[in-house]
Structure formats: C-alpha cells, structure tokens
Design goal:
- With 222 residues, the chain is an alpha/beta fold.
- The protein has one domain: 3-Layer(aba) Sandwich (Rossmann fold).
- It has a seven-stranded parallel sheet with strand order 3-2-1-4-5-6-9, with helices on both faces.
- Helix 1 packs across helix 6 and helix 3 runs parallel beside helix 4.
- It is globular, with a radius of gyration of 17 Å.
C-alpha cells in the first residue's frame, strides 16, 4: 500500500463558498495535511492552528506567489451572474482568477490540483457559464501537474451565506425531474459531499488526470 505523507500543505481558494468552506473544515482534521493555507478576499477566522488565512486582492494574484507554494491546490472559487453583474465579470472570477491561481501553484511546485467545475462543462457550449467552465478545464490540463482531479457536480445544495432564489426553486424541482436515467448527472448534490470527495481524492491520487461526473462519483440520490 502506498504510504500517505502527513506533512502536506494544502491551499484553498474559494474557501468562503459552499464547497470550499467544507473543504477547509475537513482539511483541518485531515491526517495527511499538516498546514492549510486559505486565500480569500476578506478575512475569515478558523478554530484550528493548522489553518492560516491570507487576505489578498485577486486582481494581483501574481504579487502573492509565495502563498501558493505547497502540495495540493483546491480550486473552489466561483460566482454567479447575478453576483458578478455581467458575463464578462463572471469570467474574471470563474476563469481568469482560477487559471492564474493554477498556473502560479504549478510554478510553485504544487503537484495535485483539484477543481470544482460543473456538469456539462464544455468550451464549445452555447451556454456562457458552461463554456467558461469548459475553457478552464482545457486550460488547466495544459499545465503539467503530476495529478489533476476535476469534479463536475450539478446544482449544489447546502447552507450558503447568500441565498439564491433560483437555486432554492430548482432544489425542489430537479430531484424529481432527475430521476430519469438520462438526467441523473444533473441532479442536485449536497456541497458537503463534494467537499468530502475532494479531500478523499487528495489523500492518494491514482492517475495523472481524472474527471468525475456526478453519476460516476455520487451514484446515490443525495
């Protein structure tokens, strides 16, 4: 059995979101991680000596390259069209910030990159959202990380700091619609379950590249 290092440094971006916040909580208790570097745009307090929070301006990620020196990067960053205000502004967060962080992390020696993408991500999609997610997937695959793990959940369920009215409606309707076999990969999933899978994958990645659709990783109804 492959021995798991217990001194790894994990870096998390998007730590104030639904999945990212759960990832940090799990990493604080994870035996294979000795240090958790949380990079945010506003201060967050954590009740763990393992977790350190660094507040930066994401428009100037390159000024903070030293923060991305470690072993594992969890890329959980994302916003909505409503929060961003425009597709162009959403692309800055969901594509530009994430790829810049991935590139810097690779240059700083990170070996395992884990990304929260989206079910249906495709750089040829007519959907602006799915297109930017697909573009990001394609761009990070061009970086020679030793391991890349991409997870493609659909609608995320769970407690958020900011409620989303459309998602609240969809969370009631989609579980019924998505009982159809051809729609299983689009059914809602609890964000905590996605975080649990990401942390599990970070313990001992098996392949250089892995992409997990919802129906492959979470076969049971949430």
């Amino acid at each position: 059995m492959k021995k798991i290092s217990v001194n790894k440094t994990a870096i998390v971006i998007g730590a104030t979101g639904l999945i990212g916040s759960n990832v940090v909580t799990l990493l604080a208790e994870a035996e294979h991680v000795g240090r958790v570097v949380v990079i945010t745009r506003r201060a967050v307090e954590y009740n763990s000596e393992k977790v350190e929070n660094h507040v930066i301006d994401f428009d100037h990620l390159s000024d903070h390259e030293e923060l991305f020196a470690g072993d594992i990067l969890f890329s959980c960053l994302g916003t909505t069209l409503g929060q961003a205000g425009s597709i162009a502004a959403q692309r800055v967060v969901d594509l530009d910030y994430q790829f810049t962080a991935a590139r810097i992390a690779f240059e700083q020696g990170v070996s395992h990159y884990l990304l929260v993408s989206s079910s249906g991500a495709d750089q040829r999609s007519l959907s602006a959202y799915l297109k930017m997610k697909g573009e990001l997937e394609a761009k990070v695959q061009g970086l020679a990380f030793a391991h890349i793990s991409i997870l493609q959940p659909s609608l995320l369920l769970g407690e958020r700091e900011q409620s989303r009215r459309a998602e609240g409606w969809a969370s009631k309707v989609l579980p019924i619609i998505c009982k159809l076999p051809m729609l299983r990969r689009y059914r809602p999933i609890n964000g905590a379950k996605v975080a649990q899978k990401m942390v599990l994958l970070s313990q001992a990645p098996k392949l250089p590249f892995e992409r997990f659709s919802l129906d492959q990783v979470f076969p049971k109804t949430p």
